[in-house]
Automatic annotation (TrEMBL), chains A, B:
Keywords: Hydrolase, Metal-binding, Protease. One of its GO terms (biological process) is proteolysis. GO terms for molecular function: metal ion binding; peptidase activity. Residues 199-358 form the Peptidase M20 dimerisation domain. This is Acetylornithine deacetylase/succinyldiaminopimelate desuccinylase-likedeacylase.
Amino acid sequence: MLAKVLSRLDDNLETALSRLFELLRYKSISTDPAFKDECRKTADWLVKDLQSIGFEASRRDTPGHPMVVGHHAGARADAPHILFYGHYDVQPFDPLDLWEDDPFDPKVKERGRRKVISARGSSDDKGQLMTFIEALRAYKAETGSLPVRVTVLLEGEEESGSPSLQPFLQAHRQELKADYALVCDTAMWDRRTPSIAVGLRGLVGEEVIIKAANRDLHSGHYGGVAQNPVHILSRILADLHDENGHITIEGFYDGVEETPRQVLESWQKLGMTAESFLNPVGLSIPAGEKDRSLLELIWARPTAEVNGISGGYEGDGFKTVIAAQARAKVSFRLVHKQNPQKIREAFRAFVRKRLPADCTVEFAEHGASPAIQLPFDSALISAAKEALSEEWENPPALIGMGGSIPIVGDFQDKLGMESLLVGFALSDDCIHSPNEKYDLDSFHKGQRSWARILAALAK
Amino acid sequence: MLAKVLSRLDDNLETALSRLFELLRYKSISTDPAFKDECRKTADWLVKDLQSIGFEASRRDTPGHPMVVGHHAGARADAPHILFYGHYDVQPFDPLDLWEDDPFDPKVKERGRRKVISARGSSDDKGQLMTFIEALRAYKAETGSLPVRVTVLLEGEEESGSPSLQPFLQAHRQELKADYALVCDTAMWDRRTPSIAVGLRGLVGEEVIIKAANRDLHSGHYGGVAQNPVHILSRILADLHDENGHITIEGFYDGVEETPRQVLESWQKLGMTAESFLNPVGLSIPAGEKDRSLLELIWARPTAEVNGISGGYEGDGFKTVIAAQARAKVSFRLVHKQNPQKIREAFRAFVRKRLPADCTVEFAEHGASPAIQLPFDSALISAAKEALSEEWENPPALIGMGGSIPIVGDFQDKLGMESLLVGFALSDDCIHSPNEKYDLDSFHKGQRSWARILAALAK
């Protein structure tokens, strides 16, 4: 039966692509309120698509962007019940002038010997979530049903901190509880080696606004006498790291554990070097903590990064003002048992301590999630390992993750479910950047991988 | 004769206002190329207005925005020849939402017991330059001519570093050379006390762009490993000042002289306090060098100020990127014999020294002018002192200036002319800020002041 499903996926790649293109054309940018309606339309499209595979599916409105929830009983009552999670929202596209093509007019493009799907969201996460849905569609077409019981949960706020997700999980605990959660929002180790992610960094997002004078001042009249909020903000941000790359916020490293030596050694065997990791983005020398290996830095160490800064005159030419305020968006990646709320408070205390008289500060929260550590081995992981080894040239690598997928913690804490994180993105997909793409191979073999994983779970 | 001219100015205030309003409606923002055509139209309006007073006037195109030049022989060949300078370009208006009224729809508004003209450029410098032109118009109407020989030079690039001015002065040396230069682009000491400015800080404008990765990166995937240009820029800007407010750029203070004690004492007598200077803008404690008095800081000490900073995601919500680049606009106010070109080079060396491997820096010039020190006493200043003392409640204060008027140096160096800097702006005019205004009293008594000064010079 699996062979027939796989062969159907091969035969139907073109129609699967045209469905994905429909989905990619929606500008479902969740962080910008201007695109609220587009997010709703995207959810409606997904509801219809799930219904066409026999799901009882509906759009579930929230105070933010809607969820899509679908249920399918599957062919056998004794098969496990799995919950699949993906997100249909995408990152903003700016700056537009760096895109080679319209970010919302998807195309298949030749890139050397590879074919890639170019569009915002092609990799993160519309292309990925459709690999799973296409695998379901092929099962349904070949067998009239699905090999396992499936609940699908598709979110529209992942790129903006998932504010509605926890309340939604809480309110629909019974409906969403399954045996396992499958998440498709991660990357392969390389083009030949799939991955299963077992460690995920958490995230705290903060916005800080420093205010001084009650209006912009002429820097000739007031320069040298009035507080300049850009100077103050610069000093605060400069203070975040010491000369060894360590973060200087008091108590920041509380809850950070040392990674076991055998794990560090297994990472070393993956053969990643600073050059191989950084050269593709035009860099070569690791920044950050000087006494840690590269994979440890991105998988098992916390960070403090300024994601945006603005203040004063930013247009063409020059304007000799002292700005009334300056602002920065700062995010912290957390590991192990670091407490997001404590990190937020410690950061705010750090800023306040450095604030001169005459100045005020305001803060805004932008999401918080703790880090997650999944088991290195389990029945779920064994099944996935076996299935992925059959599809790909190399067996899967058990990796850490630099980015955050907050829902995995919620699945663990709120619904008592173990998660399996398998995804087919590649490190050169430019997610969150101009010219995002998803390899056609990722899209195709991703579908086949899920078909194999579903077969393994149904055994 | 002077009495008749003064009384005509009083009688014609309403028509003078309506002429000023016409001028204020032009959006002559010189720093933004989008307004190039508006600048040309403004120049044409001024040409026509000068012609209506009997000037031989014309628009003189430059590689940037045009100059307006007009000549009038005056009534007597033995009277001095004066060159009047003003500028018709204005600062950008952003942020628009902080303006109470449309910045280009001038109005007279009641503010307490004062009447003010509200518009971008009302004070800086359209309202000011029209005080002089209205004085000329009244003389012409009363006497059929002007009491002195007058050349008018109106510039359209003062707010963007005056790139065309030096070449223009060089090319039209003979045409523009006069006995004295009169400049109306400065402020009163207070509402009862006019001023004559004798010290002007110079200005160096620099833009610095720090670049790291070849694209924006996902801060989850690359955070802690990739160089973050916002961090690097913050550290560089934070390093510009030490804990005592001294600027740390090597050689920065070369050419800075100590202000004579008697001058410092005369400034002290003006009674300015940190509170009286800073409270109106919501501040109370002087920033900058800790060991200097307030007036010394703004009149006789150099500064380094960041006028704008930007990098990464600045929109609503949050985007977890590490920016590919970050940029800042930085200006230095210079005093005494500081060399602008050396300051620029020293700043660039300062930045390059702090640039990590893997990063590059680009710089852009935004104007350079040395500081200027005019005599504390001369025939020109005596005449102006006498005239201003008759018009105003208090005699004029001889002051320093925090801002730059580069042309005064050019008049001195290139045309061998002494300048007289008299203006009627007030410290609460919000020039370079939202809600710029010019007091109706400044506009009216400013015209009367110029009439008196012209009479004194014609003696």
